[in-house]
Amino acid sequence: MTSPQSSPTPASVLDLAPVVPVVVVEDAADAVPLARALVAGGLPAIEVTLRTPAAVDAIRAIAREVPDAVVGAGTLITPEQVTEVVAAGARFLVSPGWTDALLAAMRASGVPFLPGVSTTSEVVALLERGVREMKFFPAEAAGGTAYLKALAAPLPQARFCPTGGIGPASAPEYLALPNVGCVGGSWMLPKDAVAGRDWGRVEALAREAAALSAGATCR
Q1: Helix (H) or strand (E) holding 152
Q2: Neighbour tally for 181: CB within 10 Å
Q3: Model pTM?
Q4: Which residues are catalytic?
């Protein structure tokens, strides 16, 4: 059972902020100060990836102790993981790819979700199933802005959060596309800053990322 949340579950992950931090938490004790730094910098939507044993505990701690954060879970690949992270307090779900079983579990969860795609056929298959918001992954390796631009004309109803290889220099190019709602990235979480618990630096980098818009770059 999760604790009460200060704000409702978002209708769309894509409209919360221009950038969604993609977070790998090695130590659950770092989850709350890290999330507070990101929120203070203007990035309330936080994707905690299920890449470490600490991930679910991190989601639970953020959901309980950082009410202004909208914490989500990423790298979901099984229906069982969906159940586990929603019980821990995840308020949105992100997968690197999808199957019908995984999609059914995410849909049944009651929270917004972004199934991962990297091909036109996957996008069409999701549209056929009534899903219009997706993660484009791995963005740079799968064709980047040129690929997404090519999809916009034949498939204008699909909207994306590109993730994978995106940094402060390329993010504005993605955000300029009509079918991109936000981008995912981890550049505001340098490994040395997180390891050294330099939350002030994380907050400053988050603030720069939150200020990004189409055609703008971080200084």
Answers
A1: helix 144-152
A2: 21
A3: 0.93
A4: 47, 135
